[in-house]
Amino acid sequence: GAVVSQHPSRVICKSGTSVKIECRSLDFQATTMFWYRQFPKQSLMLMATSNEGSKATYEQGVEKDKFLINHASLTLSTLTVTSAHPEDSSFYICSARDAAKGVMNTEAFFGQGTRLTVV
Amino acid sequence: QKEVEQNSGPLSVPEGAIASLNCTYSDRGSQSFFWYRQYSGKSPELIMSIYSNGDKEDGRFTAQLNKASQYVSLLIRDSQPSDSATYLCAVKVTGGFKTIFGAGTRLFVKA
Questions:
Q1: How confident is the model over A19-36, as pLDDT tens digits?
Q2: Choosing a second label site near B24 at 20 to 30 A (CA), which of A14, A32, A82, B30?
Q3: Cα angle, residue A3 at apex, residues B3 and A36 outer, rounded to 5°
Q4: Which chain B positions have a beta carbon within 8 Å of A42's beta carbon?
Q5: Does residue B8 contact residue B21 with C-beta atoms inside 8 Å?
Q6: pLDDT tens, A75-85?
């Protein structure tokens, strides 16, 4: 099955520092990856859609200068939380879509998630 | 604003019973629908996808889709305590690959 690897699984950082989260598709190519944020007992909120070789599309209310997304290859997308603050503490999850399965197949597979704590 | 609505629960069923989870969506043009299971502290895992009206069965799971009523459901037969989790309904919005998630229904299966 499709495997998406996300790293790190857990990170604690000081307020004001930046944190980079990696999302890799291990056994398929992903032209499109998605970044979600989930606060406790809430659903997944889409932050941005990451497209290989082009700029990410951010959802309304998500600061593109604070959440930097880079999708430089067909198997890797990164999310950098810049100048992190305690309110950025959350569970960040990526998902990826297998480009080889065609436009009608829209199943996406999730990484393990990254629990970010900003102190 | 595209929306996906689910009853937050918790839904409690005895072991061996059928659990029925429901979901409605607002985007009438949506064609792709998914059910994910999420254990506490973990990321979601895909259970079922459904694209056509009617029923789709996979083991103990049956997804049902009614596009006219904008309604998707998931039935879990012979529920097990290990099925206890939050079940997320997800709908791909018309145009592109963006997927909107419902808030999830917490299911408890009592042994």
A1: 999 999 998 888 889 999
A2: A32
A3: 30
A4: 103
A5: no
A6: 999 999 999 99
